[in-house]
Amino acid sequence: MYKTQGGVNMKIGVFGGSFNPPHKMHESIASQLIERKLIDKVIFVPTSNFYPKAGLISDEERLSMLKLLIKDKKEYDVSDYEFGRLTYTHQTLEYFKNENKNDEIYFICGSDNLEQLDTWKEYKKILTDYKLIVIPRKENIDEILNKYNEYKNNIIVANLENNYLSSTLVRNFLKEEKYQEVKEYINNNVLDYIIKNNLYK
């Protein structure tokens, strides 16, 4: 499903997260990275329910919403690779590298993730074997980059517009059934799915 044809080299961005729910910030990050030609394709990889996060709805519902989000967009894909297991990031990246042997794999993350990366399992392997596209948030990005100076050639800082939206804010609107207010933040197809299935109430 994710293999490229004819040995054509592509830059594939692996975009992990809970996507609880997927919203317009996720769309914006993916589209800006492609528009700027930092990558050619984005694969959204929702985390499994093994991930210890309060209020996380089912794997299947989040996957269905992501499929609606990427509908008819050939530069996007979605994977359920992490479902049913506790998976470390280095394993996920290795999976996609094996599936796309002729392509370059990029890990898309926020500066908050990069700041904590040295606590992750096999973090040096991630920094050595893959390119990271880091989206600055409120953290001091220069200070964080200094910590990983020996891997600086594998880290790309992407200053994007509209790169932060609180998923908690979105869920609170949904919980209170403020659907008019939340339309600003959620794709119409995704919102219709949420309403139809009585999610986040």
Could you characterize the architecture of this molecule?
Helix 2 links the parallel strand 2 and strand 3 (76-78). The chain is 38% helix and 15% strand. The protein is built from 9 helices and 6 strands, in the order βαβαβαβααβαβααα. Helix 2 packs antiparallel against helix 9. The chain has a 6-stranded parallel sheet with strand order 3-2-1-4-5-6. The chain has helices at residues 24-35, 59-69, 89-99, 111-116, 123-129, 141-147, 167-175, 179-182, 188-196, and strands at residues 11-17, 41-46, 76-78, 104-110, 131-135, 155-157.
Characteristics of this structure?
6 strands, alpha/beta, 6-stranded parallel β-sheet, 9 helices, 201 residues, globular, 15% strand
Provide a brief overview of the structure.
By secondary structure, this protein is an alpha/beta fold.
Give, in spatial order, the strands making up the sheet with the most strands: 3-2-1-4-5-6
Mean of residue pLDDT values: 92
- Approximately what portion of the residues adopt beta-strand conformation? 15-25%
Main sheet attributes: strand count, strand direction, barrel closure: 6 strands, parallel
Helix content: 25-40%
Radius of gyration: 17 Å
What is the helix tally? 9
Order of helices and strands: EHEHEHEHHEHEHHH
- Structural class designation: alpha/beta
Low-confidence stretches: 1-6
In whole angstroms, how far apart are the ends? 34 Å
Tell how many strands the DSSP assignment holds.
Answer: 6
Shape: globular
